[in-house]
User: Fold these one by one.
Assistant:
Number 1:
Amino acid sequence: MKSMQKGFTLIELMIVVAIIGILAAIAIPAYQDYITRSQVSEAVTLGGGLKSPLSEYGADRNAWPTLVGVNATAGSGQLNATLVGKYSTVSSSITGTYPTGSITVAMTTGKASGGNLVLATINGGSTWACGATTVDGATGSATIAAKYLPNACKP
C-alpha cells in the first residue's frame, strides 16, 4: 500500500520563510521612504497654498505681509494663513524685500524632521521655485534629502 504525503516538508517551509524575509527587507525601507515623501508633500502643500495670497497682497501693497494663524485676527500688514500642519510648520514671516522673497517650511515630525523647504520668488510671486529648483531666476532650497522631495522640487 502506498502512503500519500500530506503537508509540507521542513525545507519547503524554510524556503518560504526565507523568501518572505527577503521581501520584507526590501519592502519595509521602501515603505518608510514613501511615508516620508507623503509627509514632505504636506510641507509643499502648506507653502504652496500661500503663493497666490502672497502674490496678490504684494501686488496690492508693494510689500510682503506678516503671516498670522487662522484663529488670530489679522491686523495691518498681516495675512491669515494655515501655518501648522501635522508634520510641518510655515514660518510666520516672508524673508526678503518685495518683489524678492521666500517662504520657509520646517518639517517637525517624521524622518525629515529638522529639515526645511524654501519656496522662493524674485518677481513678486508670479513664479515660485520649490526646493532645489530654479524658476525664472529664483532658486529655492531644501535641507531635506532630495529623495524625499516631490518631483517639482527636485534638482
Number 2:
Amino acid sequence: MAMELKVDADPAEVGFDARRLARIDEHFTRYVDEGLLPGWLAVVARRGKVAYVGKHGHRDVEAGLEVEVDTRWRIHSMSKPVTSVAAMMLYEEGAFELTDPIARWLPEFAEPRVFVKGSALQPVTEPATEPIRVWHLLTHTAGLTYGFHHAHPVDAIYRENGFEFGTPPGADLAECVRRWAQLPLVFQPGAEWNYSVATDVLGRFVEVVSGQPLDEFFARRIFEPLGMGSTGFVTDDPDKLAALYVPDPATGRAVRNDAFGRTGQTRPACLSGGGGLVSTAADYHRFTQFLLGRGELDGVRLLSPRTVALMASNHLPGGVDLEQYGRGLFAEMPYDGFGFGLGFSVLEDPVKAKTLSSKGEYAWGGAASTAFWVDPAEEITALFFTQLLPSSTHPLRQYLRQLVYQAIVD
C-alpha cells in the first residue's frame, strides 16, 4: 500500500514563512517552462511535520502525464544510503567489525592489486599494502571506481569490461563483484576518496553476511518495517513510473532517453545497491524521517541512535573535507566543506561550502538529479525528484538549499 504524502502543518507552526517557501515553486517552475526539466516534485519537513509539497510539469512529457505525488522515480545513488543502513543493521547484530577485511566474506578480494603507472591497455600494478575493509566500502575509500568517470586509466579498464553506466548483460551482483575484484584499484585502500561501485560491493557483502538476496533483505528488513511499500528494484506500478530525460547538447532542453529509461521496469540481473532502486516521495520521506528519528520511525527501530550518529560523522582521515581528500571529479555533492560518513556526505563547514545549511547536515543524491538531505540541528528533511541525467546538468540541489533555508524565520 502506498503511503500518502500531504502537507500536515501550517509552515508558521514549524518556523517557516509560507510566502518565502513559495519561492521554491517560482524557481523550479521556470526550469519546466524553459524546457530544461520535464517536471519536478519537492518535499520539505521540519520537526516531523510536512510543511511543503510542491510539484510542476510532467512525469512523461510525450504522453502528457503530469507529475503526481505518487509518481515513481528512479533514485539511482539515493539507493546507497539504504544499502549502508542494511550493512549497519548487520553490524549492530555483531556480524562483523568495521575494520574487518572484506575478503573474509568476499574471498575474490583476498589479493587486490593497485594501479601504479602505465595505461589502460598496459597497466603496471603492485599488491595492495592494506586489505579492503568494510569501512572502506562505506566511505568510498576502497580504491574502486566507476567507468563513467573518464579520469583515470582504471576507469577505462572498467569500461572495457562492460562497466560504464551499467553492468554486463546477464551478470548478477555476485558475478559483477567477482569481475571488479580482478580489476586494479585506483589507489591503495584508505589512501583517498573516489566515488565508486563500493556500495554495490557492499550490497553483495550484505547478501553474503545475511544469507539473503539484496532485494529480499531490503523488503523484509527495511521497506516493510518502515512502510515503504512502493520502493524496490522494479516499480510496483509501471504506469506511474516517470520517463527519463537527458539535456540536448545543442539547446540544453530535456530530451527523452528510453535507453536509460528502461531501468526500473523489470527486475535487473544485477541488484545494484549503489543505484538500482525505484521509489516515491512518500516512501523516501519516511526513510529520511527514520534517519532524523535517529534510527526509529513510528515505534519501529532499525538502528540505534549511536549508529546513526556514527554514520552521519565525517570519517575522512584527520577530519578533512572532500576537497582535500577526494579526487576532483564527478560526485553527487560539492567538495568544499563536505566530508563523508558511512553512506552520506556530511557538511563540516557551512562557510567553506557557502551554504545556509547547518554543520552536521548529511545528504546524497542520484544520477537523475534527485536529492535529499537531513539536518539534525534544524530538524529539517528535504527531498527533490525529477528524472534528468546527469545530475551535474543544473545546480538544483544548491538552489533548493538556499530556498529552504531562507524561508526559516524562527
Number 3:
Amino acid sequence: MDKVPMTADGYAMLNDELKNRTSVERPRIIAAISEARAHGDLSENAEYHAAKEQQSLNEGRISELEDKLGRAEVIDLTKLSGDTVKFGATVTMIDEDTEEEKKYMIVGDVEADVKRNRISISSPIARALIGKSVGDSVEVSAPGGSRSYEVMKVEFI
C-alpha cells in the first residue's frame, strides 16, 4: 500500500470533508430517502432513486477519503530546508521564452490547486523540478508543449 504524501493543511482539509460527509451529508440523504419512501411506489419514484444515487456517491467519496487519510504521510513543512527542490518547496522560476515569472508550491496530489499556485508532486513540472537548485534550467514536457524554465528561488515557507 503506497503512502500518500501531503501537508498538514491537506490532511486537515480531507479530514474536514470526511467529517462533513459523515455527520451532515449522510443524515441529510437518509432523511431524503425516508421522505421519498413515504410517497409510495418505489419503482416509479424519481425522488427515491435520486436520493439513493446521492447516497451511493457520498458513500463512495467517504470510502475514498478514509483510504487517503489512512495512507497519509503528513510531512511537516517547518522541518524542511535546503537548496534543492523537493516536496513542500516553494519554487520561483522564470519561463526562458516569455520571461514570465511563476511561483509554485509542490504538494501532494490531493491538495494540488493551480489557482492557489499549488502543484502536485506527480505533475510534469514538479517531476522536472525535483532535485534542481537555484540557477538550474529545466525542460518540461507538458500537454501544451515543451517549456524551459530557470529556477530563481527555492524556499520552504
Number 4:
Amino acid sequence: MLVYPHINPVALQLGPLAIHWYGLMYMAGFLTFLWLGRKRIVTLNYTQITNKTLDDLLFYGVLGVILGGRLGEVLFYNPSYYFANPLKILAVWEGGMSFHGGFLGVLVAMAVFAYQQKLRWLELMDFIAPLVPPGLAFGRLGNFINGELWGRPTDAPWGMIFPHVDNLPRHPSQLYEFALEGVLLFTLLWLYAKQPRPVGAVSGLFLIGYGSFRFLGEFARNPDDGIFGLMSLGISMGQWLSLPMVLTGIAMMVWSYRRPVA
C-alpha cells in the first residue's frame, strides 16, 4: 500500500506572504491556456481572435472560474458550513472550488465577452474548449497536494493511506481525475479540434467527455462532505451535475452536424 506523502500546502513563505501550491496550480493552468490558445490561433488561422483578444479573454475567464467555482462549492456542496463561517468563503487558497460552478461562471463571462467583442458565443466556446482540460489537470494536482477530495476505501494494490483522514487504503481519486479530466480529455479535444468542425461540435464533445469522465471518476471518489453525500440512486452530487452535461453535449453534436451549413 502507498502512503500519502504529506506535502506542505505552502510552496513559499515570504514573511507574512504565503504562496500556496493550490494557487500556483491555477496560475499554471492559466498560463497553459494562453500558450495553447496562441497555438490554436495559428493552427486554424483565426482572424476574429488575436493574441490581445486572448489575453482579455483569459481575464474574463479567470473571473468566471473563481467566482463561479467558489459559489458553486458554497451552494452545491457545503452551504451549511460556509453560511456558518462566511469568511471562509473568501479562503480560496485552502481549496474548495466546484468545477460545475466554475463552468457556469465561465459560460456567463464568455457571454459578456462575446457581446462586447461582437463575437459568436458558441464559436468562442468551441475555441476555448480544448484549452480547458490542462487547467483541470493542474487543479486536480492541487487537490492532491492539499490532501483533499480523497477516494473511497479500496483493496487495490495502489490504494493510498491518507493519514490525516484514517488508516484505510483509499483510491487516489485526485490522480484518477487528473488522468481522465485532464490528460485524456485534452488529448481527445485537441486532436478532434485540429480540423475545422461544425459550430458547436467541439463544445459538445467537451460536455460529453468531461461529464462522462467525471461521472466515472466519482465512483472512486469519497462523497463530498456537507449536507450531500450519496444521493438518490446511490450517485453523488458531482454525478447528478454531470449527467445534464452529457445529455446537452450529445444534443449539441447532433444539432451541429445536422444544421445546414451557412
